[in-house]
Specification:
This protein has a single domain, classed as 2-Layer Sandwich (YaeB-like fold). The chain contains 2 helices and 5 strands. The radius of gyration is 13 Å and the shape is globular. It is α+β, with helices and mostly antiparallel strands and 104 residues long. Strand 3 and strand 4 form a beta hairpin. It has a 5-stranded mixed beta sheet with strand order 1-5-4-3-2.
Length: 104
C-alpha cells in the first residue's frame, strides 16, 4: 500500500530556494536536484528506499533521513502509520536539527 505523503510548507520553501540556487550556478543543476528528489519521494512512498535515523535525534522521536547523492542534502522525514511527512530538505553540515520544531 502506498502511503500518503505530506511535505511541510517550510520544507517546500527550502527546496525551491536550494533548487534556484543550484540552477543559478549552473543551468540544469537545479532541475537535476528536483528530479532526484522526485525519484527519492516515489521510492519512499513505495517503501523501496531505506532511510536511516537522524544523528543526534532520539530514536523514539522517529526522525529518519535519506542522504542525496551528488548534493550535500538530506530529506528529513517522519514515517507514520498512515502517512509520511517530509519536514526538511536539510544541508548535511549547516544548522543541524533546525527543523525539529516542524515535527508532526
Amino acid at each position: 500500500m502506498t502511503k500518503t505523503l505530506r511535505i511541510h510548507r517550510l520544507a517546500e520553501d527550502e527546496l525551491a530556494d536550494v533548487a534556484s540556487w543550484y540552477e543559478a550556478r549552473q543551468p540544469g543543476l537545479g532541475i537535476a536536484l528536483l528530479d532526484l528528489i522526485d525519484k527519492a519521494i516515489e521510492a519512499i512512498r513505495s517503501g523501496g528506499l531505506r532511510t536511516s535515523p537522524v544523528p543526534g535525534v532520539m530514536r523514539a522521536k522517529g526522525a529518519r533521513r535519506i542522504l542525496l547523492r551528488r548534493y550535500p542534502y538530506s530529506i528529513v522525514l517522519f514515517d507514520r502509520k498512515e502517512e509520511i511527512v517530509i519536514v526538511a530538505f536539510a544541508h548535511n553540515s549547516r544548522r543541524p536539527g533546525y527543523w525539529r520544531s516542524r515535527e508532526p
